[in-house]
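Example complex used in Figure S2.
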Amino acid sequence: MLRPDEIPAHIGIRREEMEVTIPSADGKRISHPAGKSPRIFADTGSIDEIKPLFEAGIINGVTTNPTLLKRAGADSLATAKRMMKEIVELLDPYPVSLELTELTKDKMIAQAAELASYGPNVVIKVPTGGYSAIDPSYDEHTGLKVLYALWEKDIKTNATLIFNSTQALFAARAGATYVSPFLGRVADYLYKHDEVEREIGNSLYFMEDHKGGKENSRVFNTSYVASGGARKDSGIRLIHEIAVIFANYGIKTEVLAASFRNDVQVAESLLCGADILTVPAPILMRIASHPLTSEGMKAFVEDSKAFDK
Ligand code: E4P
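Predicted assembly (309 residues):
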């Protein structure tokens, strides 16, 4: 777990300035006690996974991506579109992130307009970078340019595939409504490439180190926090850095922690100041319960039988 002295206390101040996310339905009721709480989204393309969580009030948003839609059964563009529309309609007015799959600026902006037409609650998910990895002739900064163009059009955006805090800052400066740091993939990466002697760096930056040579050319954070007691997770630090930077400069772009692998990361993201957590449905279903809650409940029900006589 995070050590107590690693838990930042000041980040909460920033939420005071954020929009109320659970407004009262009418003026007569007392205002909601968790009106400015972080929001929980489901990270899935499956309407069957979304429904029970939405009905329980656990989630008030959804994030999808091509991988999640494929996993949920989309085997054609037509099916993917139908599935996305169904989710958007169910969630309305809560946000649903739909990811762009085009790779050049004009096509991406046109695709964003089409996706946005599915409903007023659509958020356009824009890959922040990686374009030149697909084709060296593509502009690596396409994502940032598209984010800015959509900001100019008042279209909400989610800058995805964020792996360090400066990418997050660039996306915020491009006008992103949300940034999505992938903490689980950072944790996976660090688990595979653990080299304890390099205890420097913060979120996942790549640079040449003092040893030189390609194999040793990465510098990363190895200050581990928990993953069910195992020493394999420091992705949470990425969330912490971005939350602190945004707090330092009053940036209103929301930190949407993504790519969860386990229950502990959920609690730690909340401790670190994430504004929104998008979590796979199986984890959300699981953490609503606790064995001691079940045990306690059984005892209450058993003891209450004494009043039946
Ligand atoms: C975020 O919005 C992404 O859909 C997601 O969290 C990616 O997670 P993964 O690393 O499990 O694919």
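Residues 43, 63, 65, 67-68, 160, 180, 182, 184-185, 258-259, 278 surround erythose-4-phosphate (CB under 6 Å). The longest helix spans residues 77-91.
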